[in-house]
Recover the amino acids of this structure.
């Protein structure tokens, strides 16, 4: 089950709206953290899309999938460093595990690894960033 870029973009827009409301009612630190989370979750959504395309082309360029996985992990590090929210941290951990599973599958020669857990975890991360 792939998470569509349109759906992730819509969620990101909703989160931006929540962040604006928070700015009007709360502190700037909370808003900055929420915006950082949204922006990084959007980058992860882009990386997941790239990963899906890379997996489709694994036979032609196996390094492309590895590069997409690296990009997701770098963005996860950014979110993890900027939040102390337990839900966000759990979503980050879940996505990190899913990425690790796909990376292992590719290294073991699986040309069509199951990306469902990655897309599900990315969707969950986007969702918790909007809380």
């Amino acid at each position: 089950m792939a998470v569509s870029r349109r759906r992730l973009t819509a969620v990101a827009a909703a989160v931006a709206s929540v962040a604006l409301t928070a700015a009007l009612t709360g502190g700037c630190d909370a808003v900055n953290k929420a915006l950082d989370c949204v922006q990084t979750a959007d980058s992860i959504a882009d990386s997941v899309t790239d990963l899906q395309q890379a997996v489709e082309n694994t036979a032609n360029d196996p390094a492309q999938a590895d590069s997409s996985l690296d990009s997701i992990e770098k963005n996860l590090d950014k979110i993890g460093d900027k939040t102390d929210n337990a839900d966000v941290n759990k979503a980050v951990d879940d996505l990190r595990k899913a990425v690790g599973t796909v990376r292992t599958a590719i290294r073991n020669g699986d040309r069509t690894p199951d990306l469902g857990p990655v897309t599900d975890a990315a969707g969950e991360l986007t969702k918790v960033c909007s809380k």
